[in-house]
Amino acid sequence: MRGLENFGRVRLSANFYMRDFLYSEIADFHGIPNVPDDPDLAISAGRQLCQELLEPLQATFGRVAVRGSYRSAAVNGFGNANGMNCARNDTSAAYHIWDRRDGKGRMGAAACIVIPWFADRYAEGADWRGLAWWIHDHLPYSHLQFFPKLAAFNIQWHEKPLRRIDSFIQPRGCLTKPGMPNQTASHAKWYRGFPTLQGV
Q1: Count of beta carbons in the 10 Å neighbourhood of residue 75
Q2: 142 contacts 121 by C-beta, under 8 angstroms
Q3: What's the CA angle centered on 81, arms 76 and 86, to 5 degrees?
Q4: Which of 68, 84, 109, 176 counts the most CB atoms within 10 A of its CB?
Q5: 87 — phi, psi (to 5°)?
Q6: CA 77 to CA 27: how far, in whole Å?
Q7: pLDDT tens per residue across all 200 residues of the chain
Q8: What are the backbone angles phi and psi of residue 51, rounded to the nearest 5°?
Q9: HEC profile for the chain?
Q10: Domain boundaries of the chain, sorted by first residue
């Protein structure tokens, strides 16, 4: 217990600590410890996620609310086996499972977040693609995946960024990925009135 307390106190960036990312409804409800097998790898990946992506988002838009993030292999595996919207452990490595490298040995980490500044606008009819293209044009993300409730989205940092955006909000599917003409086009019209990037 003391070790877990100390692990939660690890500071990942100016405003984020490891404890911010450890809560899991699956782990809490089913009594499965959400603790990494490789704490050092989880910390290294989490620091990149926070410093490269979450800190600039929070500096620019205000508070970033973490909906879900790190999952141990045990928690993620249980969620996948029981239909709880968790991908297989091999595809979640270097994504929600921060302390496992992907099949090519690369490090990564993801969080599901809500940006209240945008959630308010989304509730009034704003298009999720405005935020998606803003992130695409300003931050070194690897993968984004948007969800209908609150315009929450997964945001991943990865050693070799994929630069892909998917969504469960209409229009559903893949918004962009390498090779698509819109990958490098101008997107500024989508985010007129958005704040200027801060914290970089």
Answers
A1: 24
A2: no
A3: 40
A4: 109
A5: -70, 170
A6: 11
A7: 556 667 768 899 999 999 999 988 888 889 998 899 999 999 999 999 999 999 999 999 999 999 999 999 999 899 999 998 888 989 999 999 999 999 999 999 999 999 999 999 999 999 999 999 999 999 999 999 999 999 999 999 999 999 999 999 999 999 999 999 999 988 999 999 999 999 87
A8: -70, -40
A9: CHHHHHHHCCECCCCCEHHHHCCCHHHHHHCCCCCCCCHHHHHHHHHHHHHHHHHHHHHHHCCCEEEECCCCHHHHHHHHHCCCCCCCHHHHECCCECCCCCCCCCCEEEEEEECHHHHHHHHCCCCHHHHHHHHHHHCCCCEEEECCHHHCEEEEEECCCCCEEEECCCCCEEEECCCCHHHCCCCHHHHCCCCCCCCC
A10: 2-191
Q: Which two tokens stand for residue 27?
A: 């782990």
133: amino acid identity, one letter: W
The encoded tokens of residue 148 equal: 């209908």
Question: Which tokens sit at 55?
Answer: 């800190």
Hey, what are 28's tokens?
């809490």
Look at the block and give the residue holding tokens 């990312």.
Answer: 21
Q: Cβ distance 147 to 114 under 8 Å?
A: no
Query: In the structure encoding, which two tokens stand for residue 200, read together?
Result: 């970089």
